[in-house]
Amino acid sequence: MNLSTCIENAATRLETAEVFFGHGTDNAWDEAAWLILHALGIPINEDADLNMLINSTQQTAINTLLQQRIESRKPVAYLTGTAWFAGLPFHTAEGVIVPRSHIGGFLLERGRPWISPQKVKHVLDLCTGSGCIAVAAAVAFSEASIDATDIDPLALALAEKNINEYKMESRIQLIESDIFQNLSAVYDLILSNPPYVPAGEISHFPPEYQHEPAAAFDGGEDGLNLVRKILADAAPFLAPEGHIVIEVGESWTTLERAYPRAVFNWIETGVEDSGLFILSREELEEF
Ligand SMILES: C[S@@+](CC[C@H](N)C(=O)[O-])C[C@H]1O[C@@H](n2cnc3c(N)ncnc32)[C@H](O)[C@@H]1O
């Protein structure tokens, strides 16, 4: 069998098993290709020859991984130990949410047209998880130093591993903190992908998401517990011309209802309900 047929067959098995695609892929073919290339030891960012023949040892390795994916419903990112974010690979670890945020797209554009990238010297990544936003911000703003915080020591340990992998220890400082509690600096840009899912929705998640820590999603009764605190406390941590970017996903409608006088600048991501907004310090102080 060649690689192309092998991927087609695996995709059919994933579809038949009704696995959920939500960690970097949105269809069976991509998910199958990711699994199979990993089993073959081929980096997914390199060209693979779809006509290459798969031998029986390779077929066994592929079947084992495919079976694990179907039976355990674990995200591929946990099974392979890697996830991609803003074009960069990151280590993953069970117990820490798999990297995914629309802030990745904002960083690939270096914040344009909303901010002047050359003016960004100090960045805060609130709720850093695996450290993916902090590292991508350091790549986007090459002269900036970054503070990255999380309340969860397990997340901070993984973030440290990722920061070391990119040799960014001198530019990214990790701080264990409940939101702003242990912070005192002022930032040109605050980025945050906080927990924003209404608590009651978490138990209805697909099994793949149930493998991730609930605390990374749980935004309290209406999803906005942390977002409200961030909005209330952020202004003194922003430089006079600073900006804050927050992702709230589908909770954007609840947010608009909760702050009827505020004008949120919604960032176009190409994905429905991405709920990514940006406010200047001035706009934040107004409401
Ligand atoms: C949705 S995840 C985002 C992770 C990562 N930034 C990303 O985009 O993939 C939210 C993160 O917020 C952290 N967190 C939850 N409550 C927090 C709090 N009160 N203060 C700081 N971090 C918190 C969780 O541990 C989790 O890592």
Run of helices and strands: HHHHEEHEHEHEEHHHEHEEH
Number of helix segments? 12
Total of domains? 2
Spatially, the strands of the biggest sheet line up as 5-4-3-6-7-9-8
- Summarize model confidence as the mean pLDDT: 97
Bound molecules: S-adenosylmethionine
Q: Radius of gyration in whole Å, from Cα?
A: 20 Å
**What does the main sheet amount to?**
7 strands, mixed
Helix share bin? 25-40%
Which class of secondary structure composition applies to the elements? alpha/beta
Name of the CATH architecture of the largest domain = 3-Layer(aba) Sandwich
Percent strand equals: 15-25%
CATH superfamily of the largest domain: Vaccinia Virus protein VP39
What would a concise description of this structure say?
With 287 residues, the chain is of the alpha/beta class. Helices cover 37% and strands 16% of the residues. It folds into two domains: 3-77, no CATH class; 82-286, Vaccinia Virus protein VP39 (Rossmann fold, 3-Layer(aba) Sandwich).
Protein traits:
binds S-adenosylmethionine; Rossmann fold; two-stranded antiparallel sheet; alpha/beta; globular; about 35% helix; seven-stranded mixed β-sheet; about 15% strand; about 290 residues
